[in-house]
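User: what does the whole thing look like in 3D?
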Amino acid sequence: MAESMLEYGRRMLSAQAFSVMVGAKLDAWSEGLAELSLELRPEHLQQHGIVHGGVIAYLADNALAFAGGSRLGDVVTLEFKINFIKPARGELLVARARVVSAGKSQAVCHCEVFAEEGADVTLCAAAQGTIWKAG
Amino acid sequence: MAESMLEYGRRMLSAQAFSVMVGAKLDAWSEGLAELSLELRPEHLQQHGIVHGGVIAYLADNALAFAGGSRLGDVVTLEFKINFIKPARGELLVARARVVSAGKSQAVCHCEVFAEEGADVTLCAAAQGTIWKAG
Amino acid sequence: MAESMLEYGRRMLSAQAFSVMVGAKLDAWSEGLAELSLELRPEHLQQHGIVHGGVIAYLADNALAFAGGSRLGDVVTLEFKINFIKPARGELLVARARVVSAGKSQAVCHCEVFAEEGADVTLCAAAQGTIWKAG
Amino acid sequence: MAESMLEYGRRMLSAQAFSVMVGAKLDAWSEGLAELSLELRPEHLQQHGIVHGGVIAYLADNALAFAGGSRLGDVVTLEFKINFIKPARGELLVARARVVSAGKSQAVCHCEVFAEEGADVTLCAAAQGTIWKAG
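Assistant: Here's the predicted 3D structure for the full assembly of 540 residues, as structure tokens:
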């Protein structure tokens, strides 16, 4: 049976040793969209007990690349910028990215990162990045 | 005996559980400058055997915050942007950040991230960010 | 009769000498949203006959600030980033900005810039910026 | 007699109608470096009597492109980010850009924008951008 796009994406993610260490999961991946999540553990935090900005940046970076990759195939992140909006705490970190525009070699993507704490969902960061077709 | 600025910085870094998991070290910290490094291990890589962009973004983010914090005290990263320039591979990843401008509440900082592979040193990424005085 | 929000915004824009020289108009301004436009003239172009990136960046910057200002009052643009996606040509340049998140002192905003050439509408640029309450 | 690099750059700038309207001059252009300036006039200001952010962004954008173009030839600005640091006022606005890294098709560049008011020189903005070889 053919491997689905989501299965293929999960296989790629599981080949990223860093993503395995951090604990990221690919929840959804389709044309122009990607959603990654992370069950928050103590090792994701910084000295004030909130999620380290580097974790949020990592998840946004990866979600941007998956979103862009859904349109371009094998890709690299050329650059991205991220705004940290609210402290992230709780059980789950979710990054949702979408393609704003895709051409032959370049996709410009947006990503929003949310923290879920019980029933509360907080927008923690917003990112914009440039994803480039590899090779 | 009084704790030096560098000792204080290392204590802060060691209180960041994520930084401990990733393995970052604070090599230098002085007025307007910060240098963080990372001995590269297999778990820092992505599927093509190079350092994951999220690791580079994490190290740049932290170096930017230390640089800004050297002028402002306790800080948060408001936002940053990072350009990935060359693939990072080798034994060591080094992020050097400096304050471009600091006011009462805001510091704008630059950071360059280098990978060291034997005698080769490669500029892998350049970042610019806004660090804000906390509280 | 009381001045409407849009009238007030147009008065502010007309007090910006640079905006008057460039020819920007405020088409819409409401809670969390702003739309600025520019009737394209030969002096907006660069050497290849398309709209100069500086014109697009100007319009995005202003739209981001109006969007943020709709939530925060008097504001300054702390920083922004812009991706140039497609060349801009035609009769009209339109920048639509919206607030992604607003707190007491900070708003993170997105902006898309479109060029209209006859019946064609092209997404030319996407921007993300940080707007700060003045004073 | 052969045209010098600086003369060629000035000819390119004078072919940008928008740059002519704004009044930008190319003061220096060499391998990896570019300096543009602007004699400040009332039409460069916004409603509070300081230089409009769009003017600063325009000058930075152009300086980044000239710097990158000094290494890559004919270029486009793929994206840039700019931090506004201090209000700009005075007689002259100067943007100095340099190439941080250049490959075959991409240059990452930094730019600092200064305002000169009498003997005072103020750093008003810092930018980082990606310049791409055209064609």
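In plain terms: Chain B touches chain A at residues 12, 15-22, 42-47, 52-55, 57-59, 61-62, 65, 76-84 (CB under 8 Å). Strands of chain B lie at 24-30, 33-39, 75-84, 92-102, 106-117, 120-133.
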